[in-house]
Amino acid sequence: MRLLVLSALVASVLVPAALGAKIPAGGHTDAGMAAADRALIGVRNLGAGWTAGPAGGIERLGCSATTPAAIVETGTATSPTFEASSAGPFVSQAAFVYETEAQARSMWSMVAGPATFGCLAKSVAGAGAKGVRFEIVHRNRLSRSAAGSRSYAYRIMLRAITKDQKVNAYVDLVLLERGSALTALSFAGFAEPVATSLELTAVRAASTRLG
Question: 138-192, pLDDT tens digit by residue?
Fold first, then answer.
């Protein structure tokens, strides 16, 4: 049962891949892709004992069907899924770079709010693997600020259910915007939330890499 839940929980870390608005074709540039890659944190930012697994699947951001043509995404990058142990916690990140700071602010206004919160909650609840389903127990805003960046964060508490057992799981998502870039950091914990101190360390490290 534990392996089933962990598999489904790791998948839920990458849920924003299913939430994204399609980007206009041909917008990515070498400079934009390089800037997005520079925005990603690494295991060195998380502390001793962390390892990097396969690359994640976050490719787009937001809940709407399309991104307005006036917003041009010039680059995107996705981190590996980082893990402290095979039982978690788990962390992943995606970064998105736009043509101008004004466009990044426009994108921020679309994705940093209750609508995206609800969209994420629905998608996480549907992220269960075979033999596991998730139901939402509680969701709430978090405070995960970083100097120089706008931030919006929330937590979804889930109950992982199999035919034999029920256990709690937690998925936190932190959005940051700075300059012409946005980033999304996902945290997942099994049985208990990811430590606030760890999340703040990762968020602040990511913030310094934006812009």
Answer: 888 888 888 788 999 988 888 877 777 787 888 888 999 999 999 989 898 888 8
137 φ/ψ angles, rounded to the nearest 5 degrees? -95, -45
Q: Could you tell me how far CA 115 lies from the centroid of its own chain?
A: 16
pTM: 0.85
DSSP-assigned letters across all residues of the chain: -HHHHHHHHHHHHTGGGGTPPBPPTT---HHHHHHHHHT---GGGT-TT-EEEEE-------SSSB--TT--EEEEEE-EEEESSTT--EEEEEEEEESSHHHHHHHHHHHSSHHHHHHHHHHHHT---TT-EEEEEEEEEE----TTSEEEEEEEEEEEE-SS-EEEEEEEEEEEEETTEEEEEEEEEESSPPPHHHHHHHHHHHHHH--
What are residue 136's DSSP bridge partners? 158
CB 76 within 8 A of CB 94: yes
pLDDT digits (tens, 9 = 90+) for 1-58: 455 556 665 665 454 443 444 555 458 899 999 999 999 999 999 988 999 887 655 5
Q: Which of 102, 121, 134 is nearest to 19 (CA)?
A: 121
- As given in the structure block, the two tokens for residue 178 are 């700075």
Sign of CA dihedral 63, 64, 68, 73: positive
